[in-house]
């Protein structure tokens, strides 16, 4: 029973008394889930223990719960569903019953007591104990169940919210205890009254729309305060800590074993629901109005939650995961090993708290310190300049920020997590003033040593609204967007404080913000973008700058927050890990090296960088009595470590998130020292665990350091990207030019461009990632016309210096259809296949625009394309092959050549993108590495020597070579008014590197992929110079950082360079080479001797130990076509895997290689006769179905041979089959299905495994056969012949569903065969191994010099291989045999090289198996993308994930046209395309 729909039908029919209700409101959402648990037989006897309870044992399902809301909190979900839909209780119960009915169709379900599903106020709430009593009564009265003997599943939804609303005057600890007592009463009742019960306890607090932690835990002296009046005043921090505290209390209650004294009863705490505001989720309708859509949506959400609950019942305690509705869940099934619901006992869950095995660093120094400064006096007169401000001149101190500045948990006792809610402002690093410097180190206490009259510091505890908070206006939980409000309160407090003279008193204000932004950024990257972060900082600082005279502002750069992960992952501390995930999910939850983690690091760095840029803009240095100074001591701060090198949690509050007083003390010291360090020399990586000695103002520099008294110059914020053109002769031709070869710059009247995002101007002037959707066409290197050459360097602006009337350039921003784009028809994301359409659009515009005399005006058209083709090449090498790329370029140029008169087409060579990797692999560069996959996955991701990258490198060369040959063919030089000139300067780009040795990102937009205006300026200069350079003398490299001087036409070379006016002769198209006489190889391995003794283990088998060789297969193994013109003969002696004709020097075959190690090798084929076939039992036309017969034949041949010792001799057998299965698949899909293919392979290998001693089996992976279409298309003869040989691959239309299906089946053949080999089925014998040799997995089609399929590798039928092709197969197989599993080459390298054969590794000279490659049986899934699903499903899932990405990624990824979904490995440094 696979589909849940069927499951539901069975359940409905079998549940008496409930059918009518179900028919009225079946859970539609359940139809979205597949339930693939196998039908289970009902147990003969139900389990006697709750710790061995299976789903099939459950007879009754029910639920109780109180989901009330706090008065005044707004409309609750349950209100919405009270009269129109089902409650969470009902939906959960129905869903769980539906799943259990798959195992026990007679399961019953009891609906909650009337009134339990609706939300009411506290005074009207139905007591949970009363519900429990009612449900017990209902079960006892139900005649269809045996109350004493039937197993019951009871789910209790319990919320902490309501229970705390009545204890506003108590401390949170009392509130938690009160809550716990009420829960105990309910569970105790169930424990005493209900036999045979499994109870789920689910925290449903998150389903409220209000906060429950809104009482002031710092101000417990005001018992009259009403909680109902404080809704909205409490922070997320309060919510999270109390939420964790309740769950921790519940967890400890259940871990105590209180409800595990009987073997027939248990309570398990299931993870909490994670949806705080269902109705406010994206895509939901309005919040208040009830609609059918809302009701259906909520029922769907509740169903998803219930599925999450079911899945957690299948997970051991300690491994359960929070759940909600944010992603589709797979329904889990009981495993064979653990077919029961998990409890504390059967999970082997330890309830003992974690204890540290290491001693955390003790605070040997006290939290106090002393000031070693002798000069502590103020200035002689009150300074008027902030740049002459001494510490003692500071009269007022203030602080802004979040809970770090508020002091949350700073003085909390160890393990007292709830006390983190207390704001110990008196010990806050930047604003606290408790006691004095000898006992409490804070910035205020340091300054009080210089000026005892300092005011504004906070003391004691309390929120920002209390009097003792003073001018520490930091608010726990605040983000950057909240700081302007803090500033407003601070200014008001200073204005209203009679002790402060706002105009004359000097003020020190410290601001640190951003931690909470980073903790939540992943939930809304656009909202928490670096740009918004900086904008909010700017808004706050602007208020201070405008309204607060005489102020020195410390802007402390946000810390590197990722180091917090070390505390979470360390097992040697008592940190509340779940709470840490609550407090900072975007930092704690991502996997290491995941895109989410890379995005966090990027956002963190950008916060820091843009903060610095804001200050360095000089915005706050317009008056002499105000400045903002960056204090960077936290920028590169690392996690403090113990003496053992482990994270030291003593520097943190009990929640392991906030600072302890130990860290507050250190931060105060580091901040003070930063304030005295000159700009440009400030410490930005203060080790927190080191002893920090306070610095003193020097006699020479007694002031707090500013940019001015540090003699620091801010970087230029507004660079000019203009150029000078020093050309004297700017005149046009006289008389007007009639030939494209005598065209002067001033003769050009029309300028146009085709291409992709580079030409469209994506991100040129962007200062943030969100702006990358903007196309700055007016700044584009080859076609932009904004401003003039004086301040914007582009090709049109240079040409306008020669002809001011030139038209066609683009201005401003917009897409290709906007009028200001004009003749810039480039489209972001365009690939070569889109170029012909761009050419037709350009043609239409030029013909219809009244400003253009189409027939008479000379035109310069710049064409650049290929980046997106290369970025996607590894996903579909066939589609993006060099042949296809050149064909599409040719089609474009043909359109222009045929229809555009008087035109010079400047074809800019395909750019080598590989150097751009430097920007994404250098960890010191602030680039969005998490976007690498979206920007250009084939280039920017993977290892340096990965197959994908090798493939792209080769494709780049093939593209470049193909374009060069196309242009040099003379195809576009048939008349005098048209030519195509190749501009090769992008062939070898050099990435800019700064003085620090790291890539200089100023040449790039924020994505580090598209050039910035600085980069476009350089490109424009290089392009202009290339246009003037003679053909044959053009630059073939480009250095972003070069000082490029604009060239001028000279008297002897006044024209744009063409082949003709350069006196350049195109080279011959086909250079001749000496013919190769044979396809032999050279092999000179130092060690060719056999093992010192005959090995007994196949994992220690050396090549020379092989005495017998055999082969199974089809016509590829009989070597049909080896002599290219003869297709009727089986040239077995030339067979790649079994042929023994000649020697290795004249013919490369596997036996000829092995004969170098053992000249007495037996079994290989010779000649063409069946009698000399040896142990080659392959037959032409064979399919996988024939393999078991061939296997039996081979076994009998070996057993009966007098030439071999059947038991003692080591045998090597090679198997390759499947081509005929694939070619005939469409004719009989059942007979040639993937399942049948694998079954036949399994039967074959089973025969060997059971009957052959001492054998090593090469299972050669079926080749990727789709490239056969490309071979067939290369000639008419091939097309006619090959279609008869392989109709299922050659007959379908391009992009048809039939073709996609056969490609998928091809991949499934590979994947499922690999799964069989790596399943461990053949691992029990020490003298037997089957190894997958994958060199054909990504078959690459060899190309000739013209970029066409090289048919010298193929027989006359264009399907089988020639002797040359078979030789390449033998080399690839041999090399695969020596390569360790997991490192085998997965593509063919079809190039002639006699030295390609590898030698055995002297340290491990064995044929590689899984075991001797370092893999155990449990690690066998080595090279398979996803063994349990077809290849295409993996790609679909990946694409779905991309489509579900954020708006940010959508904007960036929109730069590309449709992305190909075919992933593959790649080739080596060879001239090929995908076969």
Report helical residue fraction.
25-40%
End-to-end distance, in Å? 41 Å
How many whole angstroms does the radius of gyration measure?
38 Å
Q: What is the structural class?
A: alpha/beta
- The count of strands amounts to 21
Instruction: Specify the biggest β-sheet.
Output: 5 strands, parallel
Mean pLDDT: 83
Low-confidence stretches: 1-26, 68-84, 116-125, 162-170, 208-233, 275-292, 352-365, 1071-1075, 1417-1475
The global form is: globular
How many DSSP helices? 40
What would you call the quaternary organization? single chain
Topology:
Elements: H1 4-14, H2 19-24, E1 58-65, H3 77-81, H4 88-101, E2 108-110, H5 128-141, E3 151-158, H6 161-164, H7 172-193, E4 197-203, H8 236-255, E5 265-270, H9 292-313, E6 394-401, H10 403-406, H11 443-450, H12 483-496, E7 506-512, H13 515-520, H14 530-547, E8 551-556, H15 564-569, H16 577-583, H17 585-588, H18 595-616, E9 626-631, H19 661-676, E10 748-755, H20 757-760, H21 795-799, H22 835-848, E11 858-864, H23 867-871, H24 882-899, E12 903-908, H25 918-921, H26 932-940, H27 947-968, E13 978-983, E14 988-990, H28 1013-1028, E15 1037-1039, E16 1106-1113, H29 1115-1118, H30 1150-1154, H31 1187-1200, E17 1210-1216, H32 1219-1223, H33 1234-1251, E18 1255-1260, H34 1268-1273, H35 1276-1285, H36 1287-1290, H37 1297-1317, E19 1328-1333, E20 1340-1342, H38 1363-1378, H39 1431-1443, H40 1447-1453, E21 1472-1474
Parallel strand pairs: 1-2, 1-3, 3-4, 4-5, 6-7, 7-8, 8-9, 10-11, 11-12, 12-13, 14-15, 16-17, 17-18, 18-19
Antiparallel strand pairs: 20-21
């Amino acid at each position: 029973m696979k589909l849940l729909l069927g499951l539901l039908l069975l359940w409905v029919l079998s549940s008496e008394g409930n059918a009518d209700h179900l028919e009225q409101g079946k859970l539609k959402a359940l139809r979205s889930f597949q339930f693939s648990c196998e039908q289970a037989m009902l147990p003969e006897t139900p389990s006697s223990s709750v710790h061995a309870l299976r789903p099939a044992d459950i007879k009754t399902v029910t639920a109780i719960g109180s989901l009330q809301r706090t008065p005044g909190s707004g409309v609750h979900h349950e209100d919405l569903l009270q009269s129109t839909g089902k409650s969470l209780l009902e939906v959960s119960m129905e869903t769980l019953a539906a799943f259990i009915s798959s195992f026990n169709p007679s399961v019953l379900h009891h609906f909650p007591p009337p009134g339990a599903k609706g939300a009411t106020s506290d005074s009207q709430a139905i007591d949970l104990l009363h519900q429990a009593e009612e449900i017990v009564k209902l079960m006892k009265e139900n005649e269809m169940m045996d109350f004493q003997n039937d197993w019951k599943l009871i789910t209790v939804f319990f919320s902490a919210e309501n229970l705390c609303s009545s204890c506003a005057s108590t401390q949170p600890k009392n509130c938690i205890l009160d809550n716990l007592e009420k829960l105990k009463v309910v569970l105790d009742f169930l424990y005493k009254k209900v036999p045979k019960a499994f109870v789920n306890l689910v925290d449903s607090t998150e389903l409220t729309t209000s906060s429950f932690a809104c009482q002031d835990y710092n101000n417990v002296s005001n018992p009259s305060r009403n909680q109902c009046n404080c809704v909205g005043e409490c922070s997320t921090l309060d919510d999270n800590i109390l939420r964790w505290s309740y769950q921790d209390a519940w967890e400890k209650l259940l871990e105590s074993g209180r409800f595990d004294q009987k073997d027939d009863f248990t309570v398990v705490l299931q993870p909490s629901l994670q949806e705080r505001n269902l109705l406010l989720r994206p895509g939901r309708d309005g919040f208040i109005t009830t609609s059918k859509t809302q009701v259906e949506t909520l029922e769907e959400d509740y169903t998803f939650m219930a599925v999450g609950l079911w899945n957690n019942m299948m997970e051991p305690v300690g491994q359960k995961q929070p759940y909600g509705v944010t992603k589709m869940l797979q329904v889990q099934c009981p495993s064979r090993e653990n077919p029961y619901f998990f409890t504390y006992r059967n999970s082997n869950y330890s309830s003992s708290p974690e204890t540290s095995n290491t001693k955390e660093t003790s605070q040997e120094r006290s939290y106090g310190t002393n000031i070693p400064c002798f000069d502590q006096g103020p200035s002689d007169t009150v300074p008027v300049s902030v740049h002459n401000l001494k510490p003692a001149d500071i009269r007022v101190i203030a602080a802004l920020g979040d809970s770090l500045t508020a002091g949350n948990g700073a003085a909390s006792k160890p393990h007292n997590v709830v006390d983190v809610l207390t704001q110990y402002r008196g010990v806050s690093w930047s604003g606290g003033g408790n006691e004095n410097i000898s006992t409490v180190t804070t910035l205020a206490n340091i300054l009080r040593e210089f000026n005892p009259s300092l005011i504004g510091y906070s003391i004691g505890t309390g929120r920002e609204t209390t009097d003792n908070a003073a001018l520490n206006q930091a608010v726990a939980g605040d983000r950057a967007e909240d700081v302007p409000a803090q500033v407003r309160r601070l200014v008001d407090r200073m204005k209203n404080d009679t002790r402060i003279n706002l105009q004359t008193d000097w003020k020190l204000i410290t601001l640190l913000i951003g931690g909470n932004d980073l903790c939540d950024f992943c939930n809304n990257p656009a909202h928490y973008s670096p740009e918004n972060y900086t904008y909010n900082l700017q808004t706050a600082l602007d208020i201070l700058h405008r309204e607060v005279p005489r102020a020195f502002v410390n802007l402390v750069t946000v810390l590197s927050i990722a180091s917090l992960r070390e505390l979470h992952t360390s097992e040697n501390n008592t940190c509340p890990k779940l709470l840490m995930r609550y407090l900072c999910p975007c930092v704690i939850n991502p996997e290491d090296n995941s895109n989410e983690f890379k995005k966090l690091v990027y956002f963190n760095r950008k916060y820091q960088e843009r903060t610095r840029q804001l200050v360095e803009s000089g915005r706050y240095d317009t008056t002499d009595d105000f400045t903002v100074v960056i204090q960077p001591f936290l920028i590169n701060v690392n996690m403090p470590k113990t003496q053992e090198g482990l994270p030291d949690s003593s520097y943190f509050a009990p929640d392991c998130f906030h600072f302890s007083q130990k860290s507050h003390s250190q931060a105060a010291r580091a901040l003070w020292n930063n304030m005295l360090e000159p700009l440009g020399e400030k410490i930005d990586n203060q080790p927190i665990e080191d002893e920090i000695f306070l610095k003193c103002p020097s006699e020479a520099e007694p002031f707090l350091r500013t940019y001015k008294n540090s003699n620091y110059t801010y970087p230029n914020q507004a660079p000019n990207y203009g150029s000078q053109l020093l050309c004297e002769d700017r005149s046009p031709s006289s008389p007007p030019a009639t030939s494209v070869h005598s065209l002067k710059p001033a003769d050009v009247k029309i300028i146009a461009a085709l291409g992709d995002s580079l030409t469209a101007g994506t991100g040129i002037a962007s200062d943030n990632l969100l702006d990358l959707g903007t196309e700055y066409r007016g700044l584009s290197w080859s076609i932009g016309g904004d401003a003039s050459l004086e301040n914007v360097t582009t090709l049109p602006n240079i040409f306008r210096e020669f002809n001011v009337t030139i038209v066609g350039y683009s201005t401003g921003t917009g897409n290709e259809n906007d009028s200001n784009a004009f003749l810039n028809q480039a489209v972001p994301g365009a690939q070569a296949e889109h170029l012909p359409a761009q050419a037709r659009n350009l043609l239409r515009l030029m013909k219809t625009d009244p400003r253009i005399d189409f027939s008479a005006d000379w035109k310069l058209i710049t064409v650049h394309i290929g980046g997106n083709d290369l970025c996607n090449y590894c996903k579909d090498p066939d589609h993006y092959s060099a042949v296809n790329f050149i064909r599409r370029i040719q089609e474009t140029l043909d359109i222009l050549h045929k229809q555009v008169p008087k035109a010079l087409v400047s074809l800019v060579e395909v750019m080598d993108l590989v150097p751009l990797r430097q920007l994404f692999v250098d960890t010191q560069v602030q680039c969005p590495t998490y976007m690498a996959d979206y920007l250009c996955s084939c280039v920017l991701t993977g290892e340096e020597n990965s197959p994908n990258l090798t493939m792209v490198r080769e494709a780049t060369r093939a593209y470049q070579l193909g374009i060069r040959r196309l242009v040099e063919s003379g195809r576009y030089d048939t008349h005098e008014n048209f030519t195509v000139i190749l501009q090769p300067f992008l062939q070898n780009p050099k990435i800019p590197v700064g003085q620090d040795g790291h890539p200089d990102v100023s040449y790039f937009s924020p994505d580090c992929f598209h050039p910035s205006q600085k980069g476009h300026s350089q490109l424009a200069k290089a392009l202009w110079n290339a246009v003037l350079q003679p053909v044959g003398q053009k630059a073939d490299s480009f250095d972003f950082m070069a000082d490029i001087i604009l060239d001028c036409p000279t008297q002897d070379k006044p024209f744009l360079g063409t082949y003709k006016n350069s006196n350049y002769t195109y080279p011959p198209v086909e250079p001749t080479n000496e013919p190769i006489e044979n396809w032999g190889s050279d092999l000179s391995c130092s060690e060719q001797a056999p093992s010192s003794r005959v090995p007994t283990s196949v994992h220690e088998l050396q090549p020379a130990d092989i005495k017998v060789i055999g082969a199974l297969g089809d016509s590829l193994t009989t070597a049909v076509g080896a002599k290219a013109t003869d297709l009727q003969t089986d040239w077995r002696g030339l067979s790649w895997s079994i042929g023994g004709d000649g020697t290795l020097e004249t013919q490369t075959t596997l036996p000829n290689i092995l004969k170098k190690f053992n000249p007495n090798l037996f079994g290989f084929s010779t000649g063409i006769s069946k009698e000399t076939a040896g142990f080659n039992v392959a037959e032409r036309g064979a399919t996988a179905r024939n393999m078991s017969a061939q296997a039996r034949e081979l076994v009998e041949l070996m057993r009966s041979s007098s030439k071999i010792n059947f038991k003692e001799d080591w045998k090597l057998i090679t198997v390759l089959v499947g081509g005929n299965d694939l070619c005939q698949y469409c004719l009989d899909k059942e007979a040639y299905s993937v399942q049948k293919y694998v079954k036949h392979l399994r039967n074959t290998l089973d025969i060997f495994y059971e009957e052959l001693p001492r054998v090593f089996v090469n299972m050669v992976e079926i080749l990727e056969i789709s490239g056969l279409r490309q071979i067939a298309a290369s000639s008419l003869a091939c097309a006619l012949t090959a279609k008869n040989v392989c109709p299922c691959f050659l007959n379908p239309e391009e992009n048809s569903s039939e073709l996609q299906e056969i490609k998928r089946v091809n991949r499934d053949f590979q994947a499922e065969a690999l799964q069989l080999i790596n399943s461990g089925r053949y691992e029990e014998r020490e003298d037997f191994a089957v190894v997958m040799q994958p060199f054909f997995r990504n078959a690459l089609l060899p190309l000739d010099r013209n970029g066409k399929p090289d048919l010298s590798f193929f027989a006359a039928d264009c399907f089988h291989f020639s002797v040359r092709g078979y030789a390449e197969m033998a080399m690839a197989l041999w090399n695969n045999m020596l390569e360790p599993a997991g490192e085998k080459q997965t593509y063919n390298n079809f190039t002639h090289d006699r030295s390609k054969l590898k030698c055995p590794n002297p340290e491990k000279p064995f044929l590689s198996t899984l075991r001797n490659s370092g893999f155990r049986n449990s690690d066998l899934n080595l090279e398979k993308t996803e063994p349990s699903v077809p290849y295409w499903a993996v790609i679909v899932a990946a694409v779905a994930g991309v489509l579900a990405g954020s708006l940010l990624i959508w904007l960036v990824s929109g730069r590309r046209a449709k992305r190909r979904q075919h992933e593959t490995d790649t080739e080596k440094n060879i001239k090929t395309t995908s076969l």
